[in-house]
Amino acid sequence: MYSKIKFLIKPLLHKKFILNNELFFRSIYAIFYSGNNQLCVVCDSKLDRFISFQNDELICPKCGSSKRDRKLYHILTTNYLKEGVKVLDFSPSRCLYRKLKPDKRIEYISTAYAGNFFADKNEDITCINESDNTFDLIICYHILEHIEDDISAMSELYRILKHTGTCIIQTPFKDGDIYEDATITSEEARTKHFGLSDHVRVYSVDGLRKRLESVGFVVNPQQHTEDNYYGFKEGTVLFCTKQ
User: Fold this and answer.
1) How far is Cα 10 from Cα 142, in angstroms, rounded to an integer?
2) What's the chain's average pLDDT?
3) Domains of the chain
4) pLDDT above 50 for 184
């Protein structure tokens, strides 16, 4: 049903209108999902169930958060969003931008190089226009798998992170070694080999850790389990600090 409604609405309404009124549309649709079986930690909504979407995804009907959005928000609110923290977030989801941008405790800056994101700036992650040692917290969630020169991106993240700061990184992962091939350039081939048309590699946890360590990061990979009540996604998150 959710997919059908999106399919029907998109051709009828202007994209900007949909984005500006997204929460209104969702608030109406969410009425049909009210209950006490599950909880979205992003919008604090109690639900009968999340929306089952493609690839085993679970979407919050009220705010649109995904499994990984909810897990990331839980990590942030549990450990990192404190008074005076300066945050740089690369291509955040709309639901997280809407939560974090108004938070008066923090200085929150979002950036995106391209795409349909709510961004305060447009930055090339391989050449970030920020001073050294600027940010207490950097969120780089599902970004590096899109970047051809990922070592330059990692070096830039290291450069702009404060010595007391943390860079939180996640990508899709596979077992074994990193899989990449610079000769694979077409959207069709990249989808076949890397999972999506704009991905250029698939990391392994150990492979990504080693690359991050090569630019100076101290890396702490943490495995998070799936949680049905909160709709959290199972997966590994890398917490990176400076030596």
Assistant:
1) 25
2) 91
3) 2-59 (no CATH), 67-242 (3.40.50.150)
4) yes
